[in-house]
Each structure stands twice: as structure tokens, then as C-alpha cells.
Design brief:
Blueprint (H helix, E strand, L loop, with lengths): L10 E3 L7 H15 L9 E8 L4 E5 L12 H12 L5 E9 L13 H14 L4 E5 L5 E4 L19
Parallel strand pairs: 4-5
Antiparallel strand pairs: 1-6, 2-3, 2-4, 5-6
The chain binds tetrahydrodeoxyuridine.
């Protein structure tokens, strides 16, 4: 029997002021996208801005439904739209943020497990690391250099039967 340890690394920015001009723009777009969430049930508004390898930026927000599981997170709304609109263009950088109307978010909002799985597949399909930046309404901003840092030991289509 052997035991293995998996380590992950991420960058912590003290606040928005430390971000590059490009990252500030993406975060602003993600914040604007969050205001367009359809979050009537949770009231938790999530926004994402995704920079593609062709320079296009796609934004999206969470979309809820009275049949709760039918709704979709902002990250997947954005990724699915980007892949539909620009098939086969790799995803370079995803910025995610949220608004909690009852309590200001003072720490970053990391993507849920299901979104990590979806992002992981697009990262592998794109053949390049996708940076993921996570921000609250204020305070620190976290960044991983790859979805693999958020989802070690990920499942992939490589495990599926070949025919
Ligand atoms: N949500 C996201 O959009 N992204 C996440 O990573 C976590 C959760 C949404 C789903 C739901 O509309 C609301 O936030 C509350 O869970």
C-alpha cells in the first residue's frame, strides 16, 4: 500500500487593484454578467467572463428554474454558449464572481464540482491550460493556472469504451 499526496497552487491577489488591465476588464464584465442572472429562487447571482483563444470574450450568468435542477450555473452557461458560438476555439481564461444580496461576499467564489468537470473537459479539448480567476464582491482574488488545479484525478472521456 502506498499513499500519495496531491498538491495544488493558486495565486492570491490582495484586491482588484493588483490585477492587470485585461483581468480588470474581465472581472468588470463578469460583475456585469452577474447582474443579469436569473436567480429568482436562490437570489445568488453569479457571473462569468470567458476569454477565448481568438480574443473573443463571452459572458454568462446563472439561470434558474422553478424545477430547481433544471437551472444552470453561470460557468456552464458561459462555457456551453462559448463552445456553441465558437466551436473548437480553446478557452484561455475564465473569471467568476457573484453577488449575494443578503451578505456581501468578502471572499472568492470557486466553481462547483459539476462546473469543474465541464471546464476540465473543455480544457483538455482545447489543448491548453485554462486560467480560472475567482472573485467575491470585494477582498482577495484567487487564481489557478489550470482547471486541473481545481479538479485533480478528474474523469475524462479517455475512460470510455472505444467503440
Ligand atoms: N451557482 C453558479 O452559478 N456557479 C457556481 O459555481 C455555484 C452555484 C449558482 C447555481 C444557483 O443558481 C445558485 O448559484 C445557487 O446555488
Amino acid at each position: 500500500m502506498k499513499k500519495f499526496e496531491i498538491k495544488t497552487t493558486f495565486t492570491v491577489y490582495e484586491n482588484e487593484g493588483e490585477l492587470s488591465v485585461e483581468d480588470k476588464k474581465l472581472l468588470k464584465m463578469a460583475r456585469e454578467a452577474a447582474t443579469r442572472a436569473y436567480a429568482s429562487y436562490s437570489r445568488f447571482q453569479v457571473g462569468a467572463a470567458l476569454l477565448l483563444d481568438n480574443g473573443e470574450i463571452v459572458t454568462g450568468s446563472n439561470q434558474e428554474n422553478c424545477a430547481y435542477p433544471s437551472g444552470l450555473c453561470a460557468e456552464r452557461t458561459t462555457a456551453f454558449y462559448a463552445s456553441s458560438r465558437y466551436p473548437n476555439v480553446p478557452f484561455k481564461k475564465l473569471v467568476v464572481t457573484a453577488i449575494n444580496p443578503s451578505k456581501k461576499l468578502t471572499s472568492p467564489v470557486p466553481p462547483c464540482g459539476a462546473c469543474r468537470q465541464v471546464l476540465s473537459e473543455y480544457e483538455q479539448k482545447g489543448g491548453m491550460p485554462m486560467i480560472v480567476m475567482m472573485a467575491g464582491e470585494e477582498g482577495e482574488i484567487w487564481q489557478v493556472e489550470s482547471v486541473a488545479d481545481l479538479l485533480p484525478l478528474s474523469f475524462s472521456g479517455d475512460y470510455l469504451p472505444e467503440d
